[in-house]
Amino acid sequence: MLSELPINPSRLLDTINRMPSRDILWSGREVHLLRKNTFLLQLFEVCFSIFDHADGPGSLATRMVLVSGWFAPAAIPISLLSLAAQKVPKKHNGTQFWRKLLHSLTCGFSSSYSKRSEVEASSMLLRFNLARSSTKEGYFHFNELIKVYARKRGVTGAANAMVQAVASRGSLSLHSEHVWAACFLLFGFGNNPKVVELRVSELLCLVKQVILPLAIWTFVTFSRCGAALELLRVCTDALEAADQAFLTPVEKWLDKSLCWKPIQTNAQLNPYLWEELALSR
């Protein structure tokens, strides 16, 4: 950071110490890791604030870090990471005090960098040591502390964005770990609860494009029958739950032939979608 900003070490240290801690839920297995590294967490927030000041609220570099926590513990393809980050809603949090402080801290920095492209945002993450290059070209590694903090920080839509990115651009042969991670977020396995909720139409699309190919590929390529069957089981459970929701009465009315008639269920309201759901099960 000292090589990137016109600031001396004592002022940087003072800025980090004055950075307020995020209001996050201190629970779970990772709580000890976070509690003993509070200074680093404040340093992360300073970096995010610098990125956002230079590139506007919700910079691509910041969102790339925050969405990284939902990927598998493996090298992450930068293109997939960037796509997921672009799907995370921008949100600006910052008081007038911190905006003034960061303006003085980053004087000359923001003028040197315009809007960040994927390449520029990736370069910033490397230069600020929030990510490190992988031996595989075009891939990043993130420290486990950064990934844990990204998950605990609870950015709205980050997990959902990861699932959507993997569904649209993920490759079984190249990104199988991250495809499995998306399935864990969507269905939950064992004692792990599901994190992502999709609309029925999105779930059906994911089943056809990701879940079924993954189950077949897992069995054919690795002969992992148990893993493939478990994936199909939790997928079927999700489809059955969606089917039950479709059969639940809803309060919606349609005007037909100048008469108001009640639509009893979502299945009646969306017959084609319900048929697709039944066929998928």
TrEMBL record:
<dbReference type="GO" id="GO:0000725">
    <property type="term" value="P:recombinational repair"/>
</dbReference>
<dbReference type="Pfam" id="PF25895">
    <property type="entry name" value="WHD_plant_disease"/>
</dbReference>
<feature type="domain" description="Plant disease resistance WDH">
    <location>
        <begin position="50"/>
        <end position="161"/>
    </location>
</feature>
<dbReference type="InterPro" id="IPR058874">
    <property type="entry name" value="WHD_plant"/>
</dbReference>
<protein>
    <recommendedName>
        <fullName>Plant disease resistance WDH domain-containing protein</fullName>
    </recommendedName>
</protein>
